[in-house]
Predict the 3D structure of the following.
Amino acid sequence: MLHTGYLKSARIYKNGIHTYFTAVIPNIEIVTIYENTFRQWFDEAVRVADKSILLKAVLSGDEKFFELEVNRWMLKNISYHGGYENFYYLV
């Protein structure tokens, strides 16, 4: 995404054989693309998710189970893998 202009490197540094960089979003138009794309991914994941487990945790007052289930759900559903990776060609 650096080479397509959808991220910009703000700082580059090397540590041994590894190269690291800090990336920034270059402008408000790209921010809007990211926001819309992530919102679509999240909305779709919420729409199809089985929410009964979370509801049961809330109704029983089981905070720890609720936290674990939310974390599991987020890891499963919010991933840059398997999403709409072609969104950055839409501009």
In short: The first helix runs from residue 28 to 48. Confidence is low (pLDDT under 50) at residues 85-91. Strands lie at 8-15, 18-24.
